[in-house]
Write a structure and sequence with these properties.
By secondary structure, this protein is mainly α. 66% of the residues lie in helices and 5% in strands. This is Hyaluronoglucosaminidase.
Amino acid sequence: MDAASWLEATEGWGRAMVSVLDALHAWQAGGRARAATLLAASRELQGRSRAVRADPPRNRWGAAPVRVGDGVVDVFLAEAAARVES
């Protein structure tokens, strides 16, 4: 299915955002160790999401990275991580 890689990446980015939001909540509640664990999980999900490639059978350019929310989702995740690590 052509949409499979897009759905996979979207799910991964969504899970990464939930994890970083949970990390922020833990950080605000004073749970620094829990926040660090959740932040690491978010980064793992981000890495897997960045690795997803679309390879439609009828294209001329070959496999290409799937982009979901470029410049928005990634910026939010980076800023949230910076807050947790401060």
